[in-house]
């Protein structure tokens, strides 16, 4: 197991929030939900969801689990992307 | 899509960090790594990894991605559990 270089860690810091945000936005649109509707389903406000979708904040695993649960998809399907 | 009740949200807040922590510990042990060794691979300190494994902190998606990357497993395989 190799140590992750600072460059790799920074790459993850940059890319992961954006990929996760786009996934949530894509799934939300597929289900015809507005940001306000999805945010309300998980007890968050629209602005916070907007920042998540833009990759401007790094959501924790509980917030993602709630969103994924509300979007009716499994975590393993949600995270089916390469890092 | 149903709104998540406060009870369900609290359930996720309780269970997800614990499940994620146990998954990381299980994978770390499978690979014969100490907490210190895994923590160093991702530029974190042992105490922080200890808290993650105990479910006492809720890691964000970048921290999990780094750990999962260091443990050489895909995110989709890591998150292959029911919520």
UniProtKB/TrEMBL annotation, chains A, B:
GO terms for molecular function: DNA binding; DNA-binding transcription factor activity. GO terms for cellular component: cytosol. The keyword DNA-binding applies. Keywords: DNA-binding. SUPFAM superfamilies: lambda repressor-like DNA-binding domains. InterPro entries: Cro/C1-type_HTH (IPR001387), Lambda_DNA-bd_dom_sf (IPR010982), TransReg_Diox_bact_type (IPR050807). PROSITE patterns: HTH_CROC1. Pfam families: HTH_3 (PF01381). Residues 24-78 form the HTH cro/C1-type domain. The keyword DNA-binding applies. PANTHER family: HTH-TYPE TRANSCRIPTIONAL REGULATOR, METHYLPHOSPHONATE SYNTHASE. This is Helix-turn-helix transcriptional regulator. It comes from Pontimicrobium aquaticum. The lineage of its organism: Bacteria, Pseudomonadati, Bacteroidota, Flavobacteriia, Flavobacteriales.
């Amino acid at each position: 197991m190799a140590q992750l270089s600072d460059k790799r860690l920074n790459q993850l810091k940059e890319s992961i929030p954006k990929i996760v945000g786009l996934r949530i936005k894509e799934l939300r649109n597929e289900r015809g939900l507005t940001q306000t509707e999805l945010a309300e389903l998980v007890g968050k406000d629209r602005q916070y969801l907007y920042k998540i979708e833009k990759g401007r904040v790094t959501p924790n695993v509980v917030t993602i689990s709630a969103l994924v649960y509300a979007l009716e998809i499994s975590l393993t399907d949600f995270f089916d992307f390469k890092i």
